[in-house]
């Protein structure tokens, strides 16, 4: 059966650790393995604009000996005349893997259904699992063992980052706190799935409406943009609803003295986070951004090995 990576819990705790171990190896020796030598091609499809995802996948595929084929859905048949499953059946005969940054999770699931090459979720409205691999790698580098770490996500808990933190953090055995106002909480289904995983790994998941209570004693404080692509018309409302969840120096002071700050970027300085936090000593966002490259390379290597076993 072909292995895909569509959401964070598509891999087990052991498999997650294997991928992170491999990411550390590839970060130390960037050109150590070339599973895409040939070069083999990886299709990287974009429904949304991108900086970090586009660059990290293109560079990473090249590092692995392959050739990235960047496809914009605006200039393809996908989502227009052709279904995701039909596109996948064409691509699988020519490429080694398919990476897709899209809107609906259902499209990714349709593409993966019956496809003989790995399909990777490079971002959907529901989940951002590649970013979470990079985030976990960064936390591990700066704080050691992930198990038992307390991580707080502040702001829109219903966004893809909030939901991925629940699943990936629980898989790693972390204590995940989501602090969001009413109306911005994660899916009940995702919460339930994360709770089941946490029972197995020794982690925990918890919802807060009070951001100050959530941040108290945290190891890592995380936020994300409050106005994601496609929600620009809601900006004024969202800024009003989420204002008290902004990460500033006073908020960081409630966490552990050695706590770290993370943000997947791009950041709206002065909205969800103050500039002095982004640029401060506790911020590890630039390592986090770089680690997209290493984590995604490790994921591709791991998926290709699983599917060629």
Automatic annotation (TrEMBL):
Aspartate/ornithine carbamoyltransferase carbamoyl-P binding domain segment(s): 3-141
Entry GO MF terms: ornithine carbamoyltransferase activity
Task: Please list the residues that bind L-ornithine.
Answer: 160, 224, 228-229
All residue ranges annotated as the Aspartate/ornithine carbamoyltransferase Asp/Orn-binding domain in the record: 148-303
The pathway is:
Amino-acid biosynthesis; L-arginine biosynthesis; L-arginine from L-ornithine and carbamoyl phosphate: step 1/3
Keywords of this protein's UniProt record, alphabetized?
Cytoplasm, Transferase
Which residues are carbamoyl phosphate-binding? 50-53, 77, 101, 128-131, 264-265, 292
- Please tell me which top-level EC class this enzyme sits in: transferase
Residue ranges annotated as coiled coil are: none
The EC code for this enzyme is 2.1.3.3
Q: Where in the cell is it found?
A: Cytoplasm
Catalytic activity reads: carbamoyl phosphate + L-ornithine = L-citrulline + phosphate + H(+)
Specify the superkingdom. Bacteria
| Cross-referenced InterPro entries | Asp/Orn_carbamoyltranf_P-bd (IPR006132), Asp/Orn_carbamoylTrfase (IPR006130), Asp/Orn_carbamoylTrfase_sf (IPR036901), Asp_carbamoyltransf_Asp/Orn-bd (IPR006131), Orn/put_carbamltrans (IPR002292), OTCase_ArgI (IPR024904)
NCBIfam families in the record:
orni_carb_tr, PRK00779.1
Q: State the PANTHER family in the record.
A: ORNITHINE CARBAMOYLTRANSFERASE, MITOCHONDRIAL (PTHR45753), ORNITHINE TRANSCARBAMYLASE, MITOCHONDRIAL (PTHR45753:SF3)
Give the similarity note.
Belongs to the aspartate/ornithine carbamoyltransferase superfamily. OTCase family.
Q: Which HAMAP family match?
A: OTCase
Q: What is this protein called?
A: Ornithine carbamoyltransferase
């Amino acid at each position: 059966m072909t292995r895909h990576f569509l959401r964070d819990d598509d891999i087990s705790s052991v498999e997650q650790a294997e991928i992170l171990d491999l990411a550390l190896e590839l970060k130390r020796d960037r050109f150590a393995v070339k599973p895409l030598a040939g070069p083999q091609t990886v299709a990287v499809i974009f429904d949304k604009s991108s900086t970090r995802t586009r660059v990290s996948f293109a560079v990473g595929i090249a590092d692995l000996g392959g050739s990235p084929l960047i496809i914009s859905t605006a200039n393809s048949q996908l989502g227009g005349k052709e279904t995701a499953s039909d596109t996948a059946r064409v691509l699988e005969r020519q490429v080694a893997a398919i990476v897709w940054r899209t809107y609906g999770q259902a499209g990714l699931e349709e593409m993966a259904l019956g496809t003989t090459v790995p399909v990777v979720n490079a971002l959907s409205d529901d989940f951002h699992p590649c970013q979470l691999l990079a985030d976990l790698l960064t936390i591990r580098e700066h704080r050691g063992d992930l198990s038992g770490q307390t991580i707080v996500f502040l702001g829109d808990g219903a966004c893809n980052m909030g939901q991925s933190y629940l699943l990936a953090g629980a898989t790693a055995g972390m204590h995940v706190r989501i602090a969001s106002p009413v109306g911005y909480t994660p899916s009940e289904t995702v919460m339930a799935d994360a709770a089941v995983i946490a029972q197995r790994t020794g982690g925990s998941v918890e919802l807060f409406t009070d951001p100050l209570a959530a941040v108290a004693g945290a190891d890592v404080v995380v936020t994300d943009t409050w106005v994601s692509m496609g929600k620009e018309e809601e900006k004024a409302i969202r800024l009003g609803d989420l204002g008290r969840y902004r990460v500033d120096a006073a908020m960081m002071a409630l966490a552990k003295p050695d706590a770290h700050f993370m943000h997947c970027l791009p950041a709206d300085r002065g909205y969800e986070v103050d500039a002095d936090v982004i640029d401060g000593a506790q911020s590890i966002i630039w390592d986090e951004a770089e680690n997209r490259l290493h984590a995604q390379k490790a994921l591709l290597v791991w998926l290709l090995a699983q599917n060629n076993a």
